[in-house]
Write a structure and sequence with these properties.
The structure is a single chain. The protein is about 45% helix and about 20% strand. It has 9 helices and 8 strands. The structure holds adenosine-5'-triphosphate and magnesium ion.
Length: about 220
């Protein structure tokens, strides 16, 4: 059965799109077929994966098991042409519009990336309440752009407060994220191309996205 997952936070710039791209890459490595649906008018995901622009509803990427589309194209074909995918990942914009509510209801399960800043933390309650209001399930909250020297104490407090709602995986800050995006590649593909040794410190973020993919694939019950 196809599993539909949205990544959402009404706060902007918390790595929703970065996480979708790298999760798609990690999930396809396990042999599963992934469709990425860009629901944001910024179309960051769509332009990242785009290899050709044509009238097809679902477009290929450089990765055999990853396809992509936009929400507008997806609604035209939903359910009949998407059953071949194991996972459909929805990249949402940083706003709670009627369309975002509709997408959240369509997915049924939502993961929330957040940074450990004060404003980000303050906004989380509203996000989780809104997810529940749409009768969707909170799959989990995960930390992005974690910097140990700044965030370690806060992470512990956060874990104590959120308990099981906070996922085990923590995505570290890495300046190679921007480099990889500039090169138009998921982080692992970028490191592989650059022949960065796998045991190096910089691979921590790749390992983290792999761990996140595993947590998500295990945690889905819908
Ligand atoms: N782990 C990371 N380490 C360093 N930089 C990161 C990391 N994750 C994301 N970034 C950078 O942070 C910025 C915001 O990331 P991204 O666009 O994925 O966030 P977003 O939540 O999708 O934003 P928006 O709300 O605008 O859609 C980008 O410039 C991205 O390269
Ligand atoms: Mg985005």
């Amino acid at each position: 059965m196809t599993k539909k997952i949205a990544l959402y936070n009404h706060k902007g710039g918390v790595a929703k799109t970065t996480s979708i791209i790298n999760l798609a890459y990690s999930i396809q490595k396990t042999g599963k077929k992934v469709l990425v649906v860009d629901c944001d008018t910024q179309e960051n995901c769509f332009s990242f994966f785009m290899t050709a622009r044509n009238a097809d509803s679902i477009l290929p990427t450089d990765y055999e098991n990853v396809s992509h589309t936009t929400w507008a194209r997806y609604v035209e074909i939903a359910d009949k042409d998407t059953t071949a995918f194991d996972y459909i990942l929805f990249d949402l914009p940083p706003a709670m519009t009627d369309e975002v509510r509709q997408i959240i209801r369509h997915c049924g399960v939502v993961y929330v990336p957040t940074m450990l800043g004060e404003f980000e933390i303050q906004g989380l309650e509203k996000v989780t309440v809104e997810i529940a209001r749409q009768n969707a399930r909170l799959g989990g909250i995960f930390i992005t752009m974690y910097q140990k020297h700044n965030d370690a104490e806060l992470l512990q407090e956060f874990r104590n407060a959120l308990q099981a709602r906070l996922m085990q995986t923590v995505i570290p800050y890495s300046r190679t994220v921007r480099e990889s995006q500039k090169a138009g590649l998921p982080i692992e593909a970028y490191f592989t191309e650059k022949k960065v040794p796998r045991n190096g410190n910089s691979w921590k973020i790749v390992n983290a996205y792999e761990q996140l993919a595993t947590e998500i694939m295990k945690g889905i019950t819908v």
